[in-house]
Write a structure and sequence with these properties.
Blueprint (H helix, E strand, L loop, with lengths): L3 E2 L2 H23 L4 E7 L3 H16 L3 E7 L5 H13 L5 E4 L9 H5 L13 H8 L8 H14 L6 E5 L6 H10 L3 E5 L6 H6 L3 E4 L17 E4 L3 E4 L8 E4 L4 H5 L4 E2 L6 H20 L11
Parallel strand pairs: 1-11, 2-3, 2-4, 5-6, 5-7, 7-8, 8-11
Antiparallel strand pairs: 9-10
Helix pairs in contact: 1-10, 2-10, 6-7, 6-10
The structure holds NADPH dihydro-nicotinamide-adenine-dinucleotide phosphate.
Length: 300
Amino acid sequence: MTATILDGKAFAARMRADIGGRVARLREEFGIIPGLAVVLVGEDPASQVYVRNKHKQTVEAGMESFEHRLAETTTEDELLDLIAGLNADPAVNGILVQLPLPAHIDSDRVINAIDPAKDVDGFHISNVGRLATGQKSMVPCTPLGCLMLLRDHLGSLSGAEAVVVGRSNIVGKPMAQLLLGESCTVTIAHSRTREPAEVCRRADILVAAVGRPEMIPGTWIKPGATVIDVGINRIPAPERGEGKHRLVGDVDFDSAARVAGAITPVPGGVGPMTIACLLANTLTATCRANGLPEPEGLTV
Ligand code: NDP
């Protein structure tokens, strides 16, 4: 068997174009421009790249992008003051604080200071609780992107055996909640799981969010399963030249693609979906803030 490749890059491009069209109509009909504020504290190189991409795609979608780049030495109180200002600013519909924050800042305190209605990352405790209890919420962008790819490929997920490998608050746990919401039978595997290969082989839907390069081989995959690889791991690639690197997922793509029914590549799978879903959440937050109908098909 050779798996269908789930092209997240193309899917995300279609989503961004669709969002851009809806943003243009909001502007024309109501004079509303969705605004996304991104806060970056410190100089973490990976975070700098993410924030740059978010800014570029926000602007391309016709939204307002407010960037706040703060020094590594920024205090927690200074950051909380900034968040309070963004909460009160009507031009700001979405607020994203880029993680990780420097060690001297309590991330939970900062995230929970964001107005839940503007929490486009979906990490505020109130949005986490809402998702867990099946209420309307802001859904974390990466799991939302995974769900969109799954729905697009499979249609109904009802009754499927789903295994999520990884139990982080930003990917694994909300992914499991979303799959439960789709009426899957959900198992969460983690570093203490016994017989992980057997657990994974039960999965009709396997989501890997571990952060370990190519940890899941084809032999762990049920024939015909749909595999969503969230992992982004940078590994040395001497074959490309000295000091070069390449990106791989948590799944060993070549062996997995021979067994799976469908699989996301890395790069070009889940990654591009994350920013597209951030824009989707910003548009959803804007519509809710203005008493307009929810944009269809952009959230759960
Ligand atoms: P975390 O490090 O927060 O969580 C990793 C999870 O994997 C933990 O729950 C851990 O278990 C589990 N784990 C670690 N080792 C094993 C193992 N040997 N077997 C089974 N489970 C294991 O990572 P994140 O959730 O933040 O990210 C996961 C990956 O996804 C990373 O590669 C990250 O770069 C990528 N990512 C990609 C995004 C995208 O846009 N595509 C967005 C966010 C993340 P335990 O809890 O027991 O320690």
